[in-house]
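Bug #77: duplicate submission created two jobs. Keeping one. Sequence:
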Amino acid sequence: MGEIIAETDRLVLRVPKVEDIDALALMWADPETMRYIGKTGEGWTRAKVVERIERAIRLCDEHGMTFWTVVERETDEIIGQGGLVPIAFNGDEIELGYRLGKAHWGKGYGTEIARASAAYGFDRLGVERLVAVTNPENTGSRRVLIKVGFRELGPSELYYDTTTILHELELVDLVR
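Kept job's structure:
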């Protein structure tokens, strides 16, 4: 299966590998699935998915974090990605993020991925603060982040050349 980073009752987060490209390319090509991702909300080409998986593997090797491949335990099906990366792939801030194939929305998987990823960042990487950004219209993701404990800080123009809603979760928030 590959190196396991975290497990929940229903999911496994593992280091991505090139064999994941076919499954992820099918999901990320769908414009509806990608409507809240990035500046344009367009589906991704296979070439972009290849580039993203190669970068994810490299980030994991270099920093011990990435958007990991998310596998449903019961079916062994790849259902998306989630994890931690330096925000906008540069800088000191660590971003928590996730994206799921449309068939897997509304099942609570985003919450499981976010909790497992935050725990990994705080417990294993020694991170003291995480950020997350959402499209202002993505109310589902905003609810997930609040459920996990993130504070919504409001609109931001700092990331991904578009307006996002910035969220923050600090380690001190979890120990109160």
